[in-house]
Amino acid sequence: MGRRRAPELYRAPFPLYALQVDPSAGLLIAAGGGGAAKTGIKNGVHFLQLEQINGRLSASLLHSHDTETRATMNLALAGDILAAGQDAHCQLLRFRVHKQKDKAEKAGSKEQGLRQRKGATPAEKKSGAETHPEGGELKVENLQAVQTDFGSDPLQKVVCFNHDNTLLATGGTDGFVRVWKVPSLEKVLEFKAHEGDIEDLALGPDGKLVTVGWDLKASVWQKDQLLMQLHWQENGPTFSNTPYRYQACRFGQVPDQPSGLRLFTVQIPHKRLRQPPPCYLTAWDGSSFLPLRTKPCGNEVISCLSVSESGTFLGLGTVTGSVAIYIAFSLQGVFLCGCCSCYVSGLLL
């Protein structure tokens, strides 16, 4: 008997490269596209309302924002501002949700304040999807844009905001970290962090910056001053014939400790092998940056890492499309699935 396929939460009409969840507004923000090639595939950012209906997660399409010839490859969220990596540039977007209640008050009728949903298509009903297109509830405004990468084949690969959303940091194929004021995008800092691509970066609340790169290094910076390099294998497994590189890094709160901080990293084999060794997940002390624990997280190559707002759960995504949820404290796996709805549910816990 074949494995039962989980119901779809949302199917994008374009290649999907970036997701963000806004728990405060109950929004899922999905972005991607076909790029500048004239293939007929659109580029856009979709804003979806997440709700629990009869114990089941449902997604309602509120707004589709056209990004013209630019596919969005990475996203960061700060309140009502999105930072979108589009080719070698970073575009700031501001979105505002308009409640149905306001419309009803203007019309003078309570009945018009009820959400009117269109029925699912036969294909959606068959797959279990619950995506309900609804326009006019959310507006998007283009703010500033700036070029953030200047390599031979420039591409912004990662963007993140600092703790109070006044700065954002970007990294890409040229190995430079650049820090920008929000929302003016005035550059305040630039330095060479890695030889080759920057794969990920994370800004801590104390101003420290962690970067991971294609050169197998993970570095901790105070502005442009290198403080230390991370060494995950000192208290863990070693593979002399299998070089590993850091693929992702994220800071997370320590539950029940307001001032506590953890850093989480993912390590993957630097080269693809016929019999791939496992990937690893490591938790670090957020002050000393000493490794606390390392555990394997499967043989599928990890492509992204997320930390829930509470710091309780970690979400991993793989290049094959599967996702997994781990307990942040113990690095114990609690869920593995091939659909994005389970991943979004875990991050909303």
UniProtKB/TrEMBL annotation:
<dbReference type="GO" id="GO:0003400">
    <property type="term" value="P:regulation of COPII vesicle coating"/>
</dbReference>
<dbReference type="GO" id="GO:0005634">
    <property type="term" value="C:nucleus"/>
</dbReference>
<comment type="function">
    <text>Was first identified based on its probable role in the regulation of pituitary gene transcription. Binds to the prolactin gene (PRL) promoter and seems to activate transcription.</text>
</comment>
<feature type="region of interest" description="Disordered">
    <location>
        <begin position="101"/>
        <end position="137"/>
    </location>
</feature>
<dbReference type="InterPro" id="IPR001680">
    <property type="entry name" value="WD40_rpt"/>
</dbReference>
<dbReference type="Pfam" id="PF00400">
    <property type="entry name" value="WD40"/>
</dbReference>
<comment type="function">
    <text>Guanine nucleotide exchange factor (GEF) that regulates the assembly of the coat protein complex II/COPII in endoplasmic reticulum (ER) to Golgi vesicle-mediated transport. Selectively activates SAR1A and SAR1B by promoting the exchange of guanosine diphosphate (GDP) for guanosine triphosphate (GTP) in these small GTPases.</text>
</comment>
<keyword id="KW-0256">Endoplasmic reticulum</keyword>
<keyword id="KW-1133">Transmembrane helix</keyword>
<feature type="repeat" description="WD">
    <location>
        <begin position="159"/>
        <end position="190"/>
    </location>
</feature>
<protein>
    <recommendedName>
        <fullName>Prolactin regulatory element-binding protein</fullName>
    </recommendedName>
</protein>
<keyword id="KW-0813">Transport</keyword>
<dbReference type="GO" id="GO:0005085">
    <property type="term" value="F:guanyl-nucleotide exchange factor activity"/>
</dbReference>
<keyword id="KW-0653">Protein transport</keyword>
<comment type="subunit">
    <text>Interacts with SAR1B (GDP-bound form). Interacts with MIA2; recruits PREB to endoplasmic reticulum exit sites.</text>
</comment>
<dbReference type="InterPro" id="IPR045260">
    <property type="entry name" value="Sec12-like"/>
</dbReference>
<keyword id="KW-0853">WD repeat</keyword>
<dbReference type="InterPro" id="IPR015943">
    <property type="entry name" value="WD40/YVTN_repeat-like_dom_sf"/>
</dbReference>
<keyword id="KW-0472">Membrane</keyword>
<keyword id="KW-0931">ER-Golgi transport</keyword>
<feature type="compositionally biased region" description="Basic and acidic residues">
    <location>
        <begin position="102"/>
        <end position="114"/>
    </location>
</feature>
<dbReference type="GO" id="GO:0005789">
    <property type="term" value="C:endoplasmic reticulum membrane"/>
</dbReference>
<dbReference type="GO" id="GO:0006888">
    <property type="term" value="P:endoplasmic reticulum to Golgi vesicle-mediated transport"/>
</dbReference>
<comment type="similarity">
    <text>Belongs to the WD repeat SEC12 family.</text>
</comment>
<dbReference type="InterPro" id="IPR011047">
    <property type="entry name" value="Quinoprotein_ADH-like_sf"/>
</dbReference>
<keyword id="KW-0677">Repeat</keyword>
<keyword id="KW-0812">Transmembrane</keyword>
<feature type="compositionally biased region" description="Basic and acidic residues">
    <location>
        <begin position="123"/>
        <end position="137"/>
    </location>
</feature>
<dbReference type="GO" id="GO:0015031">
    <property type="term" value="P:protein transport"/>
</dbReference>
